[in-house]
Amino acid sequence: MATNNKRVAIVGSGLIGRAWASVFAGGGYEVALFDSVPGAAETARGLVAEGLSELAEHGLVSDAKAAAQRVRAARDLADALAGVGHVQENTPETVETKRAIFAELDRLAAPAAILASSTSTIVASLFTEPLRGRHRCLVAHPVNPPHLVPVVELVGAPWTAAETIAAAKATYEAVGQVPIVVKKEIDGFILNRLQAVLLSEAFRLVEDGYVTPQDLDKTIKDGLGLRWSFMGPFETIELNAPGGTPDYCARYGTSLSRLSGADPAIYQGGPLARLLALWGETPSAAQIASRMHWRDRRLAALKTHKRTQPAQ
Fold first, then answer.
1. Which residues of 287-312 are buried (b: 16+ CB within 10 A; e: fewer)?
2. Helices 244-260/269-279 angle, 10° precision
3. pLDDT digits (tens, 9 = 90+) for 83-142
4. pLDDT mean across residues, the chain
5. DSSP structure string for 50-90
6. What is the C-alpha separation between 21 and 29, in angstroms, rounded?
7. Crossing angle for the helix pair 15-26 and 40-57, nearest 10 degrees?
8. CA nearest to 162, candidates 142, 141, 139, 136
């Protein structure tokens, strides 16, 4: 796989495509923009330049002008794909559209080029199975807007090569993104499944009269969201009990399962042991106390930052 090839094609120049162009150009890649709508790629090129300037104002791009010069509007799909090592597809969210464009991408792109789809809803096995180069195809689902929220979900089909996932991961890391590997296909991937559960519960709590939507939002932005801005849920619970995750599960597993409707067994025995093995560390009480102090310093810095920002 062509991990050292710093040329990328962005197929589809809408909101997500333009954000990806900013990410790759800002990361030092040569970017070819293609859109099936006449004139759209050229218009998008100007919008990308504006976006790069805004990023530079925040110190997120070192040289906006140089980055913008690395973006060009391709004449056609073949021109966009010529010599690239990575393709980021951003066309409409239908299986038929994905099948059609990936057939063209597989036909026209160099054999070593990675073919990644930004789809947020369609697993790769639904649109890549008949392709000769299906081993180099995957989903690379970003969070909107990708140039500001860096996580990217890498989801291969059953036939996606491990080398493809590894090469894609290296490419996204090289441009400052945070790729995570979804080990097997699942509807909604990871982020949207987590978001769906939280949103559904939020709607229920408001509908059943327990809280206003405004106070529900405060619960996240002035509560859970503060910790979650720099820690995930597993790191959070590890620091919420003196004995780490096993201690937390012993204390709160029963109530958590009751509130969520989950099987209480996930917080104990074999499931807990497997989680801890995957987590890969068992911090001492002293290490946990030190990390709690680190967490508190980060929260203090974040609280200070929020106070300096203008209201909406």
1. ebeebeeebeeeeeeeeeeeeeeeee
2. 130
3. 999 999 999 999 999 999 999 999 999 999 999 999 999 999 999 999 999 999 999 999
4. 96
5. HHHHHHHHTTS-S-HHHHHHTEEE-SSHHHHHTT-SEEEE-
6. 9
7. 50
8. 136
pTM of the model as a whole: 0.93
Q: Which residues are within 8 A (CB) of 73 and not within 5 positions of it... i.e. 6 or more apart? A: 32, 33, 34, 41, 42, 44, 45
Q: Closest Cα to residue 138, out of 176, 108, 177, 172?
A: 172
Q: How far apart are CA 224 and CA 203, in angstroms?
A: 17
Cis peptide before 213 (omega within 30 of 0): no
Looking at residue 21, its amino acid is A
| Tokens read off for 60 | 């997120």
Q: Which two tokens stand for residue 1?
A: 């796989």
Please say if the pLDDT value at position 2 is more than 70: no
Contacts of 49 (CB under 8 A, 6+ apart): 64, 68, 71
Q: Please name which of 299, 309, 287, 291 lies closest in space to residue 224, comparing C-alpha atoms.
A: 299
